[in-house]
C-alpha cells in the first residue's frame, strides 16, 4: 500500500493536478482496493466535519491581513526602513531581505506570501547595486520560510487543529526558534560576504537622521504584531478573534499611509479567496485520505513496523527527520504536514516526546522543503519575481540557509527547551 501511495502521489503531481484533488484521488483508490468498507458513504459527513471548525476561520483572516499589508505599500515602507538600519553589515541589502521577511512573518502567517512580498520589493535593487543573484535570491527564499515558524503561523494553526494541541502554546514555542533561524541566516550571510566580499554588493551607511526618521515605518508592524500576540496571551482573544483584530489593525495602518482604495480592497479579498480555497481543499482532501489510510490499517502497520525495529526514542526521531527530509523533496509543504501528522505524531508521542516540541521540529523540516527542489514553492516564487536568470541560481543560493535549518533541527533535538522554554514560562 505504501508503494501505491508513493507512486500515485508522485505520478499525479507530475501531471500538474492540484494537490487537493490528488489527495482525494488517492483516498478513492485506497477505499477501492484496500478497505473492506464503503467509505464513500461517509464522504459528505467527513468533508463537513473536517472544515466545520472555528479554529480554521483564523486562516482567511491571517491571509487577508498579509494581502492588505502587501497591496497597501506597508511592506515596501518596512523594507526601505530596514535597509537604512542594517545595510552596513557585510552583505548589505541581503540583510534587509532577511529582516523584512522576519517582520512580515510576524503578521502574515504565510511563507509564500512573505517570499512574494520581499521578492517583489527587493529584486529591482539586486542588479542596480551589483549583488550576486544567487545569494541575494537565496536569502529571500530562505527568509520567506520564517512565515510558517514565527507566530502567527497558518501551518502551526493547522498542526494545532490536527493534533488537538494548544495553538497559543505552539505560537510561543515557535518564537525563539524562528528568531534564532533569522539570526542564523544573518550570520551565515555575513560570513559568506566576509570571505567573498564581491557577493555582497555595496555596504551602505545612512546618516543617523535618516535612520531615525525611518523608524516610523517600522512601528506599525511592531504594533500590529504586539496586538495580535498580546491579545492571545492576555486571554482577551482566541487566535481566530486575534486574527480578525489584526485585519482591522492592518486596515487602519493602510489608511494612515493612504493605501486604502477600492481596487486594493478588491484585490486583497480576491487573493484571500484564492489562497484560502487552496488551503482548505488540501486540508479536506488530506482529512479524507487520512480517514481511508486509518481504515486500511496503515497507521497500525507503520507503528508496528517501527516498534518491531526496536529503535530507541532518539533513533526513532532521527528516522522521522529523514522521512520528512526525503518527502520534502517531492510533496508540497502543507500537504506533507496534513498527510503525515495523523500517522507520525502518535508514534512520536508513544516515544515520550512532547507534541508541542515535535510541532516546531516538524515546521523546521517543512521549512527546508520550501527551499529544496524540485517542489520547493519559495524557489518558484522568487524565480517568478526575478524575471531573468535560471532557477539553478536560486537553488544554489539557498544551500547555505538549508545548512542553517539542519543545524536548527539538530539543536532542537539536542536541546528541546529551545522550543519549550517560553510555553513553560508563560
From TrEMBL:
Any GO CC annotation of this UniProt entry: plasma membrane
Record domain TRAP C4-dicarboxylate transport system permease DctM subunit: where: 8-418
Signal peptide: none
Subcellular locations according to the entry: Cell inner membrane
Domain of life, source organism: Bacteria
Membrane topology classification: Multi-pass membrane protein
Main localization, broad class: membrane
Alphabetized Pfam families for the sequence: DctM
Keyword vocabulary terms for this entry: Cell inner membrane, Cell membrane, Membrane, Transmembrane, Transmembrane helix, Transport
TM ranges: 7-30, 50-70, 135-158, 170-195, 215-236, 242-265, 277-297, 317-348, 355-381, 401-422
GO MF annotation terms: transmembrane transporter activity
InterPro entries associated with the record: DctM, TRAP_DctM
Subunit description: The complex comprises the extracytoplasmic solute receptor protein and the two transmembrane proteins.
Function comment: Part of the tripartite ATP-independent periplasmic (TRAP) transport system.
Similarity remark: Belongs to the TRAP transporter large permease family.
PANTHER family: C4-DICARBOXYLATE TRAP TRANSPORTER LARGE PERMEASE PROTEIN DCTM, SIALIC ACID TRAP TRANSPORTER PERMEASE PROTEIN SIAT-RELATED
Protein name (database record): TRAP transporter large permease protein
Organism: Palleronia sediminis
Amino acid at each position: 500500500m505504501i508503494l501505491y501511495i508513493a507512486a500515485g502521489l508522485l505520478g499525479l503531481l507530475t501531471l500538474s493536478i492540484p494537490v487537493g484533488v490528488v489527495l482525494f484521488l488517492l483516498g478513492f483508490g485506497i477505499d477501492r482496493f484496500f478497505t473492506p468498507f464503503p467509505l464513500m458513504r461517509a464522504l459528505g459527513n467527513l468533508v463537513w466535519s473536517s472544515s466545520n471548525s472555528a479554529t480554521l476561520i483564523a486562516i482567511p483572516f491571517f491571509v487577508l491581513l498579509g494581502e492588505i499589508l502587501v497591496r497597501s505599500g506597508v511592506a515596501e515602507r518596512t523594507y526601505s526602513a530596514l535597509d537604512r538600519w542594517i545595510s552596513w553589515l557585510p552583505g548589505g541589502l541581503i540583510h534587509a531581505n532577511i529582516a523584512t521577511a522576519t517582520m512580515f512573518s510576524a503578521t502574515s502567517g504565510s511563507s509564500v506570501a512573505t517570499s512574494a512580498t520581499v521578492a517583489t520589493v527587493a529584486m529591482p535593487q539586486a542588479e542596480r547595486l551589483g549583488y550576486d543573484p544567487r545569494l541575494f535570491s537565496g536569502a529571500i527564499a530562505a527568509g520567506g520560510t520564517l512565515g510558517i515558524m514565527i507566530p502567527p503561523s497558518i501551518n502551526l494553526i493547522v498542526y494545532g487543529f490536527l493534533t488537538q494541541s494548544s495553538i497559543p502554546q505552539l505560537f510561543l514555542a515557535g518564537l525563539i526558534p524562528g528568531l534564532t533561524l533569522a539570526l542564523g541566516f544573518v550570520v551565515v550571510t555575513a560570513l559568506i560576504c566576509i570571505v567573498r566580499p564581491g557577493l555582497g554588493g555595496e555596504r551602505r551607511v545612512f546618516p543617523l537622521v535618516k535612520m531615525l526618521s525611518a523608524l516610523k515605518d517600522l512601528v506599525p508592524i511592531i504594533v500590529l504584531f504586539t496586538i495580535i500576540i498580546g491579545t492571545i496571551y492576555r486571554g482577551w482573544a482566541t487566535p481566530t478573534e486575534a486574527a480578525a483584530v489584526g485585519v482591522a489593525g492592518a486596515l487602519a495602518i493602510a489608511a494612515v499611509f493612504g493605501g486604502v482604495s477600492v481596487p486594493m480592497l478588491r484585490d486583497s479579498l480576491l487573493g484571500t479567496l484564492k489562497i484560502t480555497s487552496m488551503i482548505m481543499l488540501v486540508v479536506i482532501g488530506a482529512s479524507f485520505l487520512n480517514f481511508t489510510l486509518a481504515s486500511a490499517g496503515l497507521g497500525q502497520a507503520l507503528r508496528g513496523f517501527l516498534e518491531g525495529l526496536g529503535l530507541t526514542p532518539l533513533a526513532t526521531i532521527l528516522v522521522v527527520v529523514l522521512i520528512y527530509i526525503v518527502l520534502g523533496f517531492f510533496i508540497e509543504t502543507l500537504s506533507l504536514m496534513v498527510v503525515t501528522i495523523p500517522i507520525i505524531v502518535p508514534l512520536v508521542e508513544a516515544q515520550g516526546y512532547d507534541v508541542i516540541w515535535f510541532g516546531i521540529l516538524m515546521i523546521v523540516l517543512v521549512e527546508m522543503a520550501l527551499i529544496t527542489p524540485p517542489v520547493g514553492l519559495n524557489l518558484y516564487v522568487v524565480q517568478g519575481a526575478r524575471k531573468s536568470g535560471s532557477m539553478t541560481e536560486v537553488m544554489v543560493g539557498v544551500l547555505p540557509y538549508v545548512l542553517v535549518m539542519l543545524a536548527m533541527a539538530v539543536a532542537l533535538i539536542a536541546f528541546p527547551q529551545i522550543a519549550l522554554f517560553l510555553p513553560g514560562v508563560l
